[in-house]
Structure formats: structure tokens, C-alpha cells
Amino acid sequence: MLQKKWMQRRWFDFRQGHSIYLIFFLSFSNFILIFHRLLIERISFLENVLSELWVFALIFILFYIPVAILIGVWHRKNQIKIETDVVFRQYPTLARMFRLLIDMGEGKASQEEIDRTRKFLKQIEEGKGQSGTF
Q1: Is the pTM of this model over 0.70?
Q2: CA torsion 66→53→35→19, rounded to 10°?
Q3: CB neighbours of residue 93 within 10 Å
Q4: What's the rounded Cα separation, in Å, for the pair 77 and 71?
């Protein structure tokens, strides 16, 4: 069982490192190379000005980063609210725990419900939690 969990964690770590960091760098570099090849090298005016790949990459990055930041700010202020709502609706257990917190604050939660939730969270803390509901 411990070996299986160790392998599952390594698989998770691999996917995170690959999809968040390595693929980002590789796809960004690939995009610059393809963009340079297909646009700059085919338009004589641009090729005269931006013939060196490193010059094009530098100018591209100086333009691209601020645009990406502006889009990221827009996403954080507008779109992420919708995405959070969608994700939250996919995890009814999380919604149930938040409801329980509210019920506890208002004195409406039963002791049985509190104990069941406490046991469920304890199992997760100990790495024994099973997927499903509590």
C-alpha cells in the first residue's frame, strides 16, 4: 500500500512538473521559433529588421509579457469567479463542509454531523480518506 501511494504521488509530481513548468517553457520556446520561421523569415521587410532570432525573441517577450499580464488580471477579476463556481459545484463534499461550518456558527449543526465530518477530515489528514462522501 505504501509503495502504491509513493508511486501515485510521484506520478502526480511528474504531471505537475511537466504540465505546469516544462511544457510551458517548451511551448513558449516552440511558439517563438515557429512564429519567427513562418512570419519573420517570409516577409522581407521584417527579416531585414528582425533577422536574428535572439533580437526577435527579446522584442517578442517584451511585448508578450505585458499582454499576458493584462489578460491574467482580466481573468482574475472576471473569469475566475465563474471557474471557481463551476469547480465548487463539482465537489459537493466541499460544499457540505462549508455548510456545516455555517450551521455550526449558527448553532444548527447536530453533534452527529459534526462528529462524522471530524472523522472524515481526520481520515484525510492521516492519508486514509477514501474518495466519496462522508
Answers
A1: no
A2: -70
A3: 14
A4: 10
